[in-house]
Design brief:
With 54 residues, the chain is of the alpha/beta class. Helices cover 30% and strands 24% of the residues.
């Protein structure tokens, strides 16, 4: 089995209150610091984060 290449693009989708929006923005910042780029609108992302309330 071949190793999976690390993700290059991401998309963070937040559902719920304004705190979820803030948390999603923070997650996006951390992903960018790790060298990932946000996926362009209408394109597939290598990594998708669904941020919801518990």
């Amino acid at each position: 089995m071949r190793p999976t290449p690390p993700p290059k693009t991401y998309r963070v989708k937040s559902f719920g209150c304004q705190m979820n929006v803030y948390d999603g923005d923070r997650m996006a910042e951390l992903l960018a610091e790790q060298g990932l780029s946000p996926a362009s609108e209408g394109t597939d992302a290598d990594l998708v984060v669904l941020n919801t309330c518990h």
